[in-house]
Amino acid sequence: MSTAGATAAAAAAAARKRREQEEEEKLTTYDSEDLKGWEFKIVRSEMGKFKNRQFVEQVCKEEAQAGWEMLEKFDNGRIRFKRRIERRAQDPHLQIDPYRTHVGMSGGALALIIVTAVLAVVGIVVLTIIALNS
Question: What is the pLDDT of residue 1?
Fold first, then answer.
């Protein structure tokens, strides 16, 4: 992948993230009655793992330990949860982070893998050119 290609991919990813954030803001509007006694979060999967029904069920089971209930699945990368505020009192006794917002590989780890792969390919190409010109 060229530098221009990597730049274009990064720009496309940023644009997608902005669209998703705008969509979430539109879909997650609450009035004061909705918020009374509830808290909300969105759990993300950078690799689109929520397309797998069993994975979704596992994540929901884990979140239920902290009192989180699935409200909706936006797409294969995002699920929205809610829970009663009173459940916070049990947080110190949990085996999981009740406020986790990512499952699977994080966006930073994915970006690191992509950058490493691109640099490896560029390095191989450079070494091949040097070897051919020697």
Answer: 56
The domain segmentation of the chain, as residue ranges, is 3-106, 107-134
The neighbouring-strand residues paired with 66 are none
The percent of residues above 90 in pLDDT, for the chain, comes to 46
Task: Note the pLDDT of residue 126.
Answer: 81
**Whether 68 contacts 81, CB under 8 Å:** yes
Structure tokens at 75: 């797409």
Residue 131 has pLDDT above 90, yes or no: no
Q: What is the pTM of this model?
A: 0.65
3-state secondary structure labels for all residues of 28-91? CCCCHHHHCCEEEEEEECCCCHHHCHHHHHHHHHHHHCCCCEEEEEEECCEEEEEEEHHHHHHH
CB 12 within 8 A of CB 28: no
Instruction: Enter the tokens of residue 57.
Output: 């069920």
